[in-house]
Design goal:
Helix content is 77%, strand content 0%. By secondary structure, it is mainly α.
């Protein structure tokens, strides 16, 4: 009886222990499961929160519809001006050994004579701006008029030498007499006409007219009421005499130069028309001698 009672107590104790262990295990499992579930839910909630708070990524500038189109480069732009041809490649540039080059030489030489005289005249005008300064510099005024005469003489000789250069170039070419005859018109057009016109317009009718207006007709004339009459008259008379003599001599040089070149051109055309090379050569030789005589005769006053 006592043994049965002890056995019953042991059985009951084991049962209670098993029940308690099973409950603890279930509770532990439930706790773990619930904890895992809560963590998962929290993670999901965190993820959702992150997705809701994170702004949408803006499209990159490369893919944006608002990105301006790439402008065409300067090289391909329609507005890019065309490259100007260089002077060397320009059709208007004068190549050595051509009639165009001879024309350029004539223009340059005439321009050099004229620009030199204009520069000296401008200096006189700038530095002699009163009657007193004029009287103090009468030697400079006379020297300038002398230079105009001398340079006019040298310019006339220069144009005659250009006429010879044209003649030699044309008549020594390999072209036929008909072509040479036609090309002699270039001598007339460039040396006789263009060169002669520049001589007349820029020196005789240009520089000398300016000297008259500036000094005789303005500076000296305006001093009439401010200086003694005798001084005024002497200065004005001297100025007029220098100017008139130089202008007359310059006109004579211009006229003689043009006449000589015209006669030279006319004689060459006649010889070329007759296809007489020896006659043409003799005409050129005689003209060269005339030029040398003129060079020897050039002297200042």
């Amino acid at each position: 009886m006592k043994k049965k009672l002890i056995a019953l107590l042991l059985t009951l104790t084991l049962t209670l222990s098993a029940t308690a262990c099973g409950a603890q295990s279930t509770a532990d499992t439930s706790t773990v499961t619930n904890t895992s579930t809560e963590q998962a839910d929290a993670a999901t909630e965190t993820k959702n929160t992150q997705n809701e708070d994170t702004p949408e990524t803006e499209p990159s500038a490369e893919n944006s519809e608002d990105t301006p189109e790439t402008e065409p480069s300067v090289e391909n732009s329609e507005d890019t001006p065309e490259t100007e041809p260089s002077v060397e490649n320009s059709e208007d540039s004068a190549k050595p050994g051509t009639l165009e080059a001879l024309e350029a030489d004539v223009i340059k030489d005439v321009g050099d004579f004229v620009s030199g005289l204009i520069s000296e005249m401008d200096t006189l005008v700038a530095e002699i701006d009163s009657f007193d300064k004029y009287v103090e510099n009468t030697d400079r005024m006379e020297t300038f008029y002398t230079k105009v005469y001398t340079d006019s003489s040298l310019l006339g000789i220069c144009l005659m030498e250009h006429a010879v250069t044209y003649a030699d170039f044309i008549l020594n070419s390999d072209e036929g007499f008909d072509e040479k005859y036609e090309n002699l018109d270039e001598l007339y057009d460039v040396v006789y006409e263009d060169g002669g016109d520049e001589f007349y317009d820029r020196i005789y009718d240009g520089i000398l007219e300016d000297m008259y207006d500036i000094f005789y007709d303005e500076l000296l004339d305006n001093a009439y009421d401010t200086v003694p009459y005798d001084e005024w008259l002497d200065a004005r008379s001297n100025e007029y005499e220098w100017w008139l003599d130089t202008r007359s001599e310059t006109y004579e040089i211009w006229l003689d130069t043009r006449s000589d070149i015209y006669e030279f051109w006319l004689d060459l055309r006649s010889a070329t028309f007759e296809k007489d090379a020896d006659e043409a050569a003799e005409i050129i030789a005689d003209f060269k001698e005339d030029i040398e005589d003129l060079k020897a005769s050039v002297q200042t006053r």
